[in-house]
Design brief:
Layout: H1 2-11, E1 38-42, H2 50-63, E2 65-70, H3 75-83, E3 87-93, H4 100-105, H5 137-151, E4 158-162, H6 176-179, H7 196-206, H8 220-243, E5 247-252, H9 256-263, E6 274-277, H10 289-302, E7 309-313, H11 320-332, E8 337-341, H12 346-358
The chain binds zinc ion.
Zinc ion binds at residues 111, 133, 135, 193, 195, 197-198.
Amino acid sequence: MINRRKFMKNTLVAGAAASLLPAVAGAAAPHAKKEWFNWVWTNPNLTETDDVLHARYKAYYEAGIRGIFFENDSEKHFRAAKAQKLQAHRWIWTMNRGEKTLLDAHPEWYAKNRKGESCATNPPYVNYYRWLCPSRPEVRQYLADDYAAALAKDYVDGIHLDYVRFCDVILPVNLWSKYNIVQTSELPEYDYCYCEVCRAKYQSEHGINISEVEFPEASPSWRLFRYRQVNEVVAQLTAVAAKYNKSITAAVFPTPDIAHRNVKQDWVNWKVTGVCPMIYHGFYKENVAWIGDAVAEGVKALNGKFPLYAGLYLSDFKNDAEIQQGIQNALHNGAAGVSFFGTVTDGVLQALKNAVAAVPFGKRAW
Ligand SMILES: [Zn+2]
């Protein structure tokens, strides 16, 4: 899982409702609005000793880290983190679900592209791209049950969604050469979901058979319809988190604009307790100044609805000084903190300490 995740983050960006949103008043806010709140994404190494975990999580807290997203369950890691005053959240993939049990039992639950090919049999780009159709009630229930099982554990402070979107119809530009694809238009093999459930639901709502539309990728209502299907999945999971009075956060695409265009993800319209846009500048051939621009765009769009934590891809930085600059760009532009993906070295922790010391907390909208 660790290697797979690493490969995935190095190749495809991973990966957090419009109508009838459930009440979310019960979902706990992830932080107390009085200091920067920083996170680390990690996959817990189950063989590590208590002494190692004690030292690491203590150092994290002292550097300004306040929460960890764990990609696997480990009571030992969760409790060791909590003993150092860190929040411990369970990070679980949402729409991209390749578990064999599910593939075998319900191949019909998987999304279909504009050519009619299913992710169950023809995964796009890479073999682990197994996207579920967000329109199916049984898919939504399956996900609700899965996240509820994590939330039911007393040592889990919240859930963290990832891949909560459609498959990338457009990859970040830095990956085009890697896959030998030019995606200046929406190609049919990467455009989802055209399954019978989505088509029938859209037709019943809009009176249009999307199969008879010459350029469905240019249809605004078809696009909105698809945003809403994922928004409704998120709304259902938000209700599950509220039931347990725990928080729900998500790793999302870097800006509302890129999220819409690349992966049909509409995170500004969710009611979660926070988002971590993956502002991985190298994927978009940008420099660290863009981290501030991306944060500013997201914060403006959210208008104080919930906090935004800038996701930083540590491998994209040249050195620790540049990491400090990236963090400061995020904090100066309205982020509530940052979230690190990659190896958190002592140098990274020092960069965080320096950045937090350099930017006054001030008065925040969230
Ligand atoms: Zn579908």
